[in-house]
Amino acid sequence: MIHNNCLQITDKGLKDWLAKIIAGGKQLYAPVREGDKTAFKWLDSVAEISMEHIQTTQSAKAVAFPRAEKLFSYQKEKGAVTLQDYNPDNLSETVIFGLHPCDAAGFRPLGSIFNWDTPDKPYNERRKRMTLITVSCTKSDEFCFCTSVNGGPGNTEGSDILLTPLKKDYLVEIITEKGQKLVEAYQSCFDTPPENSDKEACLAKVPVRFSPEEVSRKLSGMFESKVWETQSERCLGCGACAFVCPACACFDIQENSKGNSGDRLRCWDSCGFSLFTLHTSGHNPRSTQSQRWRQRLMHKFSYMPDRLSVIGCTGCGRCSRACPVDMNIAEHLADIG
Amino acid sequence: MRELQDTVKALFDKGEIDLFIGYEKGTRTPRPFFVHKAEDAENLIFDAACSGNLAVYLTRKDLTGGKKTGISASYYALKSIAQLFDENQLKAENLRIFGVSEEGSVQFFDSVAAIKQHLSATPPPAKPDEDELVGKINAMTASERWKFWSDELSKCFKCYACRAACPMCYCTKCIVEVNRPQWIQPWASTLSNMEWQINRVMHLAGRCSDCGSCGTACPLGIPVHLLTHKMSETVKEHFGVSETKENVLSTFKPDDKENFIH
Ligand code: SF4
Ligand code: SF4
Ligand code: SF4
């Protein structure tokens, strides 16, 4: 029996549990260290998992929103076209282990975008099969700002299970039914928690840099502000910030065709690219980098809160770590807010 | 540092420039900094950590168009600037180019010839880490090398930061974006990522300054600058160093060697 939806697990118990999850037929996606970077990988063995990092280079969003997704296939024959729609039957059940609360929270803005109008089948089918075992942050760096966007190093939003490293062992918080199932199936790996495990004391201290409400309020009157030119001068207009972001959902449609058959693909795109809004006529409504930078901040901190009731940013700081010219988003937001 | 700040202040005071492109302190490492008025020059810095190639901004019309622009250029930025002049991308009358030594002394270049002369008299800054990795890659067998680059390039997600950071990638329409016909598959996959890098490198033949900004820019840490580095060495070996404006990519001579085409 599980009491209060809180348990405890030892380091060894955790490895056993994950190994059993793999043996049980689920796909495991977890952080692996490579040189000075850490990346999520599909793993057959728990030995490769590394938890030393503050942040993986990329988020875990690719599991629900891969960098290139086949939406449907087609064949043309004598004027007749046959279509094979997106087939979710071969998608596996996946467990993502070792993501931080800012990544788990990213599935809320992502899910809001992929469901704001027509529910998106590929995203929802993949998301349905995912169970998130998140690990709270015990350390942070100068790029982290989850606490400024309604998050925190021990935040449970989006997670199915949240593990917090205590002095010894992990506190296990079971958040959802999906999480409950994954624990109950392997209950022997867990212990009941001691009387007073102090989660808060083990969490990283992440200073608040700005208020998202204040930023959002100010942004609504800043469309014509000079600030966009000043802030964006050094921006190179690449896709690094958008591609590493757990909440960026923009995509481009491409065609992989050969003769009379082909696939329609959905690929990651970025509002930082000059091509993003280029019309066939040659007109570009966002012809300068400052307009594109404005769009990035407006979309995340003004339009999304207004229309989808969610901030398009979880404060993971990845865009700032990835940016070749140090466009530190928290610094820019603090200057505004 | 002081010398650079004072020089820039004086340029603004005399009305000689409208904009100065340099570096300021960044979150972890120095970052590009755009100075618009004399008092902001105080935040300028320059040291060995100022490695991003600032020449990338000189062809950005939205930033420098119609402005008299000054720039503090590292060794490699000077090389890129000389190449941009050779490709008729810059107007000398609008530019004030300053080299800054690691000790902080400032040197003004009044012509492309002066830049070229300085470059030929100055050895390129040492890159021990790169040399080590290049040594390792050179020692690999062809199949080991294939595996190395397949593994590295399988990670690429086509953010094009490598292209955006490169001063020589100034085309307004890149070959990867041409879709009629589609030369390069635009989605990310190991094969199409290789196609992308091979094209990027080939288009830099005889033009790349070897600054390494492409590799530093890559958020995934793929050492793509070693591809252009190797290409530069190969070009030097087969074609020598160009004494004229001509470069390997855009110059055809009937007696060009063809023995490397298989
Ligand atoms: S902010 Fe940085 S990462 Fe984003 S487009 Fe600009 S240069 Fe690229
Ligand atoms: S905008 Fe930047 S800090 Fe915010 S979620 Fe995206 S990558 Fe993280
Ligand atoms: S910067 Fe790196 S990930 Fe981005 S396109 Fe270039 S090689 Fe690929």
Describe this structure in words.
The complex is a heterodimer of chains A (337) and B (262). Chain A is an alpha/beta fold and 337 residues long. Helix content of chain A is 29%, strand content 21%. Chain A has helices spanning 11-23, 101-113, 121-128, 177-184, 199-202, 212-219, 227-232, 240-244, 289-308, 318-322, 329-336, and strands at 6-9, 27-34, 37-43, 68-77, 80-84, 94-99, 130-135, 161-165, 170-174, 251-258, 261-268. Chain A has a 7-stranded mixed β-sheet. A 4-stranded antiparallel β-sheet of chain A has the order 5-4-11-10, with no helix packed on it. In chain A, α6 (212-219) packs across α9. The model of chain A has no long low-confidence stretch (mean pLDDT 95). In chain B, strands 2-1-3-4-5 form a 5-stranded mixed β-sheet. Helix content of chain B is 38%, strand content 10%. In chain B, β1 and β2 form a beta hairpin. Chain B is α/β, with parallel strands linked by helices. Chain B has helices at 2-13, 61-64, 75-86, 112-121, 128-138, 142-154, 161-164, 190-202, 213-217, 225-239, and strands at residues 19-24, 31-35, 69-73, 95-100, 106-109. Chain B has 2 domains: 2-121, no CATH class; 128-250, Fumarate Reductase Iron-sulfur Protein, Chain B, domain 2, CATH 1.10.1060. Chain A binds chain B through residues 34-37, 39, 57-58, 67-68, 142-143, 233-234, 236-240, 242-244, 252, 254, 256, 265, 267-268, 270, 273, 275, 288-290, 320-326, 328, 331, and chain B through 26-29, 31-34, 52, 56-57, 62-63, 155, 157-161, 163-165, 177, 185-189, 213, 216-217, 219-221. The complex binds iron/sulfur cluster (3 copies). One iron/sulfur cluster binds at residues 244-247, 300, 313-319, 329 of chain A. One iron/sulfur cluster is lined by residues 156-162, 217-218, 220, 222, 224 of chain B.
